[in-house]
UniProtKB/TrEMBL annotation, chain A:
Provenance organism: Halovenus aranensis
Subunit (UniProt): Heterotetramer of the KorA, KorB, KorC and KorD subunits.
Stated name of the protein: 2-oxoglutarate synthase subunit KorA
GO molecular function, one term: 2-oxoglutarate synthase activity
InterPro entries xref list: 2-oxoacid/accept_OxRdtase_asu, Pyruvate:ferred/Flavod_OxRd, Pyrv/ketoisovalerate_OxRed_cat, Pyrv_Fd/Flavodoxin_OxRdtase_N, Pyrv_flavodox_OxRed_cen, THDP-binding, Transketo_C/PFOR_II
Keyword Transferase attached: no
From TrEMBL, chain B:
CDD domains per record: TPP_OGFOR
Protein name per UniProt: 2-oxoglutarate ferredoxin oxidoreductase subunit beta
InterPro entries assigned to the protein according to its UniProt record, in alphabetical order: 2-oxoacid:Fd_oxidoreductase, OFOB, PFO_beta_C, THDP-binding, TPP_enzyme_TPP-bd
Transmembrane segments: none
Length: 586, 287
């Protein structure tokens, strides 16, 4: 288990919570520490409460836990919201001077540091810097060299001028000095720094970066939480590589714009969340039957309908696997951590083009809003391989023409993969359609041709199953009687949960599945296990259903659907409870 | 590519299944002629169509083509053009495809002003589903789903386009082959979104907006002193509910296509074998 520190800043939406939290996370990352962040957006109490939480360690951290060591509270509500996570010795930094927190109640056994954040900020040049003053206080409490904070402030404010940078650094120092002079508590915290270089990014950014690396040149989308960051990341950056982001009038247009660009031969992508996927479903079948490579990213959030837009859920699995009328060939991949968001995006583009098929890239809110540290080598661009499949140019096109010289975009080859000719390719003119069609792309209702084309599209999937690596990621004890299976973003908390379980002498094998379709066959693994537990963030156990269908055996389920991601310590308890039900009853 | 392209080169070997006498024959012939006469080649042309009688056009024409879902032909055409600005993109639609299910896209495609053409076969009826009211059907037009008329004014696509900032608005009559071809040609040559609404009579289900009706009703603006660059004059024409105008109603003189404003001139299909040069800078940004 990592020697970790859990820090948070909370207040009202609009208090600059996010940007302050990000600065602190950046400072830690620049100090060579691992960081894993999360965000709270209100829960038990209605209102505009929001918090940015940072878990940090010199070792890798991949989960949140139910513990908070240092809290910057801009409101009383921030303390109330986090009562369960605060503990004996937790430090609460607040401003009791000119705020609503004059009568604040600091729970027993905790340390309250009343610091005139606003006044000190004014001394440094403006009340707006009060959060930065609080960061200075936090540096003192955590024994964290404040120079690291300077570096993060420099990065954040560089484009606003040196004076702005200097004022902020000064604000942080005033906070640190005030805490050092006015309080003489013994704090338990000591943030060690290292010489390691880390980059800090979230899942949406990693997807955007992966798209550029993979040669994506066309992105169309309609803003929606929590997928918007993919679009804002790409805007401006993709232009540097000859690409373009197009903001569409709706998701119907977004997917059709991307489809058009893909027909022109561009690597194209759209990203959205559940409500947008609903609209795009209209076009899934067309993408598949016209055999157009397209990457469709679903950054899931809690549904149904508008649901809980800022909350976590893995509720779209069935939609991604089965959405749309008729039988639609598709692939679905699900990154399991922020770095994998990058690599799975690259892979999705290759799969899409090699098999001329829509590929769903299934991420979720917890990956999208989590800033996570990685060594830069985790995104080694030299490792990126581009595989474009069967694209034919003028020189090769002759071998794909029928006896009348017509190009055959849906030629039923043995492996099911047909040639692609982009508009502009001589002698390649052809049509394609959402209607069932013949090899030439022309509509047909001929029963034999229908069968030929359906089987051809199915053959592509079979070919992909044979040729590609659809294996799972494995952790823990491979010989354990307990098998835990999960998909997507739960990998981090489960890996850490295994360590807690190990401390309790509970061995478990953990299989993390990044491929939803085609997916690994887990028959042998599930048969070999005494107990199989499928963990996912939804109420009905959609992945558990799929696995039960695959292996014809019942599995145990751990489901969470309150809108909050799994936490490592909570998962360890839940797995233990599944394994010893009697104790739970007692 | 060769420059001696004939309109027949844009014809596929599939025989249209439109009803004999359908206005769409004339509409499509004009499109093919316009493409050929503006020096385009089937191998450099991308035609997009939606659903309805108009949607079949990609099957009957020879070019790169996509026959998509109902109402979404415009976004497909825009995506194709932006990804490869060298292509000639023509989108075909019907009044249902363009002004009902696709009305949202129509307005935004007009605003975006990408260099392409949009030809709508407007027969003021749903033909493929055998005769229901369309968005351009008259208020008192009785159909199987509107036995007492629609009791709604028809959509005015020309006025919609003008108010959305169109840079080229025209109307033609499919039966007047020469003028129809000329008008579509102008739409193709226009630097921006060339929109042509075509009176394309449905001989089977619409006994009101017939060939005879249009022959009597149309007023060719070419034979008047209408100034196509005068927006006020255009406003007057598109809001005149009593006259069926044909010809170019409005054209902005200094139209600059969106892709040009955005500096797009590369074929996005061409990418390196690995991550693009400079990609590692993207990683360093996250330090």
């Amino acid at each position: 288990m990592p020697e970790d520190l859990n820090w948070a800043i909370g207040g009202e939406a609009g208090d600059g919570i996010d940007s302050t939290g990000k600065i602190f996370a950046q400072a830690l990352s620049r100090a060579g520490r691992h960081v894993y962040t999360s965000k709270d957006f209100a829960s038990r109490i209605r209102g505009g409460y929001t918090a940015y939480k940072v878990r940090t360690s010199v070792d890798r951290v991949e989960s949140v836990v139910d513990r908070l060591d240092i809290l910057i509270a801009l409101t009383q509500r921030t303390i109330d919201e986090n009562t369960d996570e605060l503990h004996e010795g937790s430090v609460i930094i607040y401003d009791g001077e000119r705020t609503t927190m004059q009568d604040v109640e600091i729970p027993d056994e905790m340390i309250g540091l009343d610091v005139p954040l606003k006044s000190l900020a004014e001394d440094a040049g403006g009340a707006i810097m009060r959060n930065v003053v609080a960061l200075g206080v936090a540096c003192e409490v955590a024994n964290f060299p404040i120079e690291n904070l300077d570096s993060a402030l420099e990065k954040r404010f560089a484009d606003k001028g040196q004076a702005m940078v200097d004022n902020n650094c000064e604000a942080a120092r005033l906070g640190q000095e005030y805490a050092a002079e006015e309080y003489d508590h013994e704090y338990d915290y000591d943030i060690e720094t290292t010489d390691n270089d880390y980059v800090l990014l979230n899942g949406d950014q990693a997807i955007g970066m992966g798209a550029i690396a993979a040669g994506c040149r066309f992105y169309s989308g309609y803003p929606i939480t929590p997928a918007t960051d993919v679009m804002t990341y790409l805007t401006g950056r993709i232009d540097e590589f000859g690409g373009k982001v197009v903001q569409a009038e709706d998701e119907l247009a977004a997917i059709n714009l991307a489809l058009g660009a893909a027909r022109s031969g561009a690597r194209a992508m759209t990203a959205t969340s559940g409500p947008g996927i609903d609209l795009m479903t209209e076009t899934f079948g067309l993408v598949a039957t016209s055999e157009t490579p397209l990457v469709i990213c679903d950054v899931m959030r809690a549904g149904p309908s508008t649901g809980m837009p800022t909350k976590q859920e893995q509720g779209d699995l069935d939609m991604v696997l089965y959405g749309g009328h008729g039988e639609i060939d598709r692939f679905a991949v699900a990154p399991t951590n922020v770095a994998e968001c990058f690599w799975k995006t690259v892979e999705a583009f290759n799969l899409a083009e090699k098999y001329q098929i829509p590929v769903f890239l299934v991420s979720d809110l917890s990956l999208a809003v989590t800033e996570q540290t990685f060594p830069p080598e985790a995104f080694d661009m030299d490792e990126v391989e581009i595989e474009r499949g069967n694209i034919v140019d003028e020189d090769e096109i002759d071998s794909w023409l029928d006896e009348q010289g017509r190009f055959q975009p849906h030629f039923p080859s043995a492996d099911g993969i047909s040639p692609r000719a982009f508009p502009g390719t001589e002698d390649g003119a052809h049509m394609t359609t959402g209607l069932e069609h013949d090899a030439l792309g022309r509509r047909t209702e001929d029963t034999d041709v229908r069968i030929e084309q359906v089987e051809k599209r199915q053959q592509k999937v079979e070919t992909a199953k044979e040729r590609e690596d659809w294996s799972y990621r494995e952790f823990g004890d491979p010989d354990a009687e307990t098998l835990v299976v999960s998909w997507g973003s739960n990998e981090g908390p489960l890996r850490e949960a295994l360590e807690y379980l190990d401390d309790r002498d509970i061995d478990a094998r953990f299989i993390s599945v990044p491929y939803l379709f085609p997916r690994p066959d887990l028959s042998e693994e599930i048969e070999a296990a005494e107990t199989t537990i499928v963990v996912e963030c939804n109420a009905t156990g959609q992945f558990a259903d799929v696995l039960e269908h695959d292996v014809l055996e019942r599995v145990e389920r751990i489901n969470k659907y309150n809108g909050v991601r799994f936490k490592a310590d909570e998962l360890a308890d839940e797995i233990e409870a599944v394994l010893s039900p009697q104790e739970v009853q007692a | 590519m060769s420059s001696d392209v004939r309109f027949i080169d844009f014809k596929s070997d599939k025989q249209p299944t439109w009803c004999p006498g359908c206005g769409d024959f004339g509409t499509m012939n004009g499109m093919m002629k316009a493409l050929a006469e503006t020096g385009n080649h089937p191998d450099d042309t991308f035609v997009v169509a939606g659903i309805g009688c108009s949607g079949k056009i990609g099957t009957y024409m020879h070019s790169y083509a996509l026959h998509g879902v109902h109402g979404r032909a415009l976004p497909v055409g825009i995506g194709a053009k932006l990804a490869n600005p060298e292509l000639e993109v023509m989108v075909a639609g019907g009044d249902g495809d363009g002004y009902s299910i696709g009305a949202g896209h129509f307005v935004h495609a007009v605003r975006r002003n990408v260099d392409m053409s949009y030809v709508v076969m407007d027969n003021r009826i749903y033909g493929l589903t055998k005769g229901q009211a369309s968005p351009t059907s008259r208020e008192d037009f009785e159909t199987s789903t509107t036995p007492d008329g629609t009791n709604m004014p028809p959509v005015n696509p020309l006025a919609l386009a003008l108010s959305a900032g169109a840079t080229f608005i025209a109307q033609s009559f499919s039966s007047d082959s020469q003028r129809h071809t000329e008008i579509v040609k102008e739409a193709v040559e226009h630097d921006g979104f060339g929109f042509v609404n075509v009176y394309s009579p449905c001989v089977t289900f619409n006994d009101v907006d017939t060939y005879d009706y249009f022959r009597d009703a149309v007023v060719d603006l070419d034979e008047t002193d209408h100034d196509r660059h005068d927006k006020d004059a255009a406003r007057e024409k598109v809001l005149d509910g009593d006259t069926e105008y044909t010809g170019v109603i409005y054209q902005e003189e200094n139209s600059v296509p969106w892709e040009e404003r955005e500096g797009l001139d590369e074929n996005m299909a061409e990418i390196p074998d690995g991550a693009p040069e400079g990609a590692m800078d993207l990683v360093r940004e996250f330090y």
